[in-house]
Design goal:
Elements (H helix, E strand, L loop, with lengths): L1 E6 L30 H11 L3 E6 L5 E7 L25 E5 L3 H13 L3 E5 L2 H10 L4 E5 L7 H11 L1 H4 L2 E5 L6 H9 L2 E4 L4 H12 L1
Parallel strand pairs: 4-5, 4-6, 6-7, 7-8
Antiparallel strand pairs: 1-3, 2-3
Helix pairs in contact: 1-2, 3-4
Length: about 210
């Protein structure tokens, strides 16, 4: 194993918060200042590589994060996925538009799709996504629901009006939607969607299905 240790000299993480820092959507920031997904994304990426990430802290003594990853010579066991079978190969040169305002998640998805052979364009909100669709065509669009300026539902409705064929290639990613307006929108749209946090392998499978 290779261990990476990161330590800061800040005020530390309170003991009552420490067990929750990797939980999706948990944040101590003010409303609108953070999504609570940064550490969740980091946790998912490390797990995808067969590793582990832990945190230790004491008030006034900073925080220490340890990331352990298997070396290239080892073969970490992967969770079996017999029901789904092997991932299909991506179509050569397939273009994907990612409409996502959370930087950490966007960076992970762009890297994952790029490594898989896709040509990826990132837009930070729905309006930037519409601007991108006006410049070129895409084989699939991955879109968040909650975003500044123009959110996912408004972005989708604009696609339906101007690019109806492309609207059928939208994949939404979102948080808890049970019993909400978001759930009703997803059902009405008929689009595929993944709940956050999702495994990158799950996203790849849906993208390859849509672009195939």
């Amino acid at each position: 194993m290779v261990r990476l240790t990161i330590h800061d000299s800040g005020r530390g993480i309170p003991a009552e918060i420490l067990p929750r820092i990797f939980d999706p959507f948990f944040t101590t920031k003010e409303v609108g200042q953070g999504t609570g997904l940064g550490l969740t994304v980091a946790y998912a990426i490390v797990q995808e590589h067969g590793g582990a990430i832990t945190a230790q802290s004491a008030p006034g003594e900073g925080a220490t994060f340890r990331i352990e990853l298997p070396t290239a010579s080892t073969k970490p066991a992967k969770r079996p996925d017999a029901k789904l079978g092997p991932l299909p190969e991506p179509r050569a040169g397939a273009a994907v538009l990612l409409v996502e305002d959370e930087p950490g998640l966007a960076s992970a998805v762009v890297e994952c799709l790029g490594d898989a052979g896709y040509v990826v364009t990132h837009a930070g909100d729905g309006q930037a996504g519409l601007d991108a669709t006006a410049r070129r065509t895409f084989d699939a669009i991955i879109c968040d629901l909650k975003m500044p300026r123009l959110d996912g539902p408004a972005f989708y409705r604009a696609l339906v009006e101007h690019y109806p064929a492309l609207a059928r290639r939208v994949i939404f990613v979102t948080g808890d939607v049970a019993g909400t307006d978001a759930e009703r929108f997803l059902v009405e749209s008929g689009c595929r969607w993944l709940p956050k946090p999702f495994r990158l392998s799950e996203l790849l499978r849906v993208v390859r299905d849509v672009t195939g």
